[in-house]
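input
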Amino acid sequence: MKKVFGIIGILLVLSLTIPRTAGLEIDPEKIHFYIYGMKTCPHCQKMKEEIPKIYGEDSLTYYELVGNDENGKLFQILYQNTGISGVPAIAIVYNGTLYAVIEGEFKVNATPQIIEEAMKAKGVLLVVGGKVWLLPSNDTKAMELANILYSLFVEHKAPETSSSSPQQDTSTTTTKTTSPSTTSSSNPPESSTGSPQGNEGSICGPGIMLLVPIAVLGLRRRR
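output
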C-alpha cells in the first residue's frame, strides 16, 4: 500500500457542480454501494436514504451490525485488515469492480468522480481515519488487501486469505479488537504517513467528504 499525499481541507461543494468529470464516462446504472452500518447511527441512515435517491433502489446492499453476529464477524475482519473501526463503512463498486472503500459519510453525488480517479490511479482508494490511501493494481500485497475487501463487501463472506492480525506494511499496526464507535467529528485531519490504522474511538460516521478532482499526486478530502 502507498499513501496518497496532498490531503487538503477544502469545501466539497465547490468541486461538485457536475456529477461526472470530463474524462471517462461513468454510467450511474453500473454503480453499486455496499455498506456495513448500524441502525443507531444517523450517518448510516442518511447514506441509506441518499444513495437510492440518486442511483436507484437496487443500488445499495446494506449489512446491519446491530444484532447480527455474522456481519459483526465480517466487520471485525475488516477492522483487522484495514483499521476501519467506524460506520458507515462503504464500498463503491462499478461494473463489478471495487474502486473505493470509505470509512464514514461522504457526498454521494461525488461517486462518479471517485470512480474515475480510482481508474486513473489504477487502484482502489481506501479512506481510513482521516487518511486517504491508494492500493495500486501493480502491487501484489495491495491487491491481496483489495481482494479481502471485495470478499467482505461484495461476496459478503470471510476471505480465505484473511488473518486474525491487522494488515501491515513496514510500520506497526494496532492489535486490539474493536466494535463500531459512535462519536462523530468534524475537524479536518492532519496529513501523515505510515499504514492505515484504526481511529482511537473516533466515529459513528465522521462526515468524511472525499474531494474531487483528485490531483495526480494527491487527494483532496475533508472530514
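quick obs: Strands lie at 2-3, 31-37, 60-64, 89-94, 97-103, 123-128, 131-136, 209-215, 218-222.
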